[in-house]
Structures are given as structure tokens and as C-alpha cells.
Amino acid sequence: MATQEPDAPAGKKPRWFAKPLIWALTTFGAAVAGVVAVVVNNIYLQAEDGVKDWREEEPIRAVASSRPWEGDVGAFEDALLKGSDRFLLLRGATREQWDDLVRRHKGAQVGYQYITVVIQGLRNRSVRIIDVRPRILSAGPVFKGTCIQVPTAGDAGTYNIKADLDHLRPGYGTKNRSGTFLGKSIELAANDRVTVQLSTLAHNHSYEYDVEIIYDYGDNSELQESYAKQSNGDAFRVTGPAKKYKVSYTEPGLTNSYRASRNKSC
Q1: Closest CA to 135 of 215, 226, 197, 239
Q2: Angle at 67 between CA 66 and CA 71, to 5 degrees
Q3: pLDDT tens figures, 33-84
Q4: Can you point out the beta strands (E) in the chain?
Q5: d(Cα 17, Cα 243) in Å, to the nearest integer?
Q6: pTM passes above 0.85
Q7: What are residue 156's phi and psi, to 5 degrees?
């Protein structure tokens, strides 16, 4: 004989309704929590950027460096005809001694110079890099005192820019008539990094210069600038070639010692 199911107790809803309700409430709660987390995170990031803007901290950091390539030629305005520096070159200088010699005599590379610029974004909002270019600080006659052939090497970069300091405008000497040296802008998010290889040329003058970075950030309607020099604070230097130098130190031999000649080219 078949048994009869007892009736559900009064005041209780059927079980088929309870499980979907719990699932719906759980899903809704998770969605709300996710939205709240996103809103709170955005508020925090905006506040963090706002504090840095209020402190007038730059939204980018730029580091620039230059290393001569093998076979490059360096020049000094003064002639190293005597003294300890001449003896150092004839005897053979270490890399540290060479760097110190160039720094003390404010030496410049002859004809061209390669500079590596690393730019890092320091805001949660993106910073748009509009252009990277040399900014001339001073110009003068080409160096005719001393020339030295350099036995070191350098590295290549990611974005390549060429600038003729005698004619400092984008696309000079080429068919590219872009309004910027960079050609196209670069978007930098927080902690993003980009490397720019800047090649500068000089023929008619000598130059001291740094690297100017033009960028667009935030709600500011005007473009902003940031500047980068060498890590020791010195400007970069490049000079056009001279027909003759008072003294020239030709390519070092196996012992890194130089041969000195008077009134000759390099």
C-alpha cells in the first residue's frame, strides 16, 4: 500500500526557492564587492597622483648617458703639449683615468655623439611623450687644441633619433618633415620604461647641450618639459672637426699608449 508524503510545515517556503535566492544574493554581493574594490582603488590611485602633483613632483624620470664607440675621436679646446696628462696618454691610461681626463678638460666627441636616454613613468595615469630632442646650452668655435682617438665601445638603443645641432630642426637633410624628432608619441604607464638612442651631429661649431623631453600629462592644456644631463650633472659636448690640431694623439697600440704629433688632423 502506497504511503502519503506529509505536508510541508506551515510558514516554511519550498526548498526549490531557497537555493536560487541564496545563489542570487551571493552573486550580487560579489559583484557589489568587486565594484566597490574598483572604485576604492581608483580613488586611491587618483589621490596618490594628486599628492605627487601637489608636491610638484615630475611625472617622469629621465636618465641620459653617453659612451664613445670604438674608433671615435675626442677633442679638447686646450692643447695637451706637456705635463702629467700628456705623460698619462703616452704611457697608457685606464678607463677611469680617461674618463677623469675628459671631465677635467671638458672634452667633446668629434662630429657626432650617441646618447642613450631611459624615460620612466611615475604616475598611475599615463604620460604621453611627445618629443625627445637636444637642447643647446652654449655654442662656440670647433675645438682645435687636442684630438684623441678613443678605443672604447658603446651600446645601441630602442627608439632612434638623429639631430644635426648646426641645423636643429626635425627631419633636416631627410625627406621626413615630421614636426618632432621622435616621429610618434609614446604612452608611458606607471613604472613603464622606454629607451631612446639620440645621435647628435656637429660640423661648424662646438656645443654643450642636454636632452629635452616634451610630454603631455593630466588636464594641463600646455605641454611640459623635463631635462636630462649626464649622471654627474655635466652637459653633453660635441664639436665639429678641425682641419688641424695643435697636438693629436693617434690610435693606441696594444699597450694603450698613444703617439703624439703636432699640427695634424686626427
Answers
A1: 226
A2: 135
A3: 666 666 666 676 666 677 777 777 788 888 888 877 666 788 888 888 878 8
A4: 60-65, 73-76, 108-110, 112-121, 127-140, 146-149, 159-164, 186-188, 193-201, 206-217, 224-228, 236-239, 245-250, 259-264
A5: 96
A6: no
A7: -95, 165
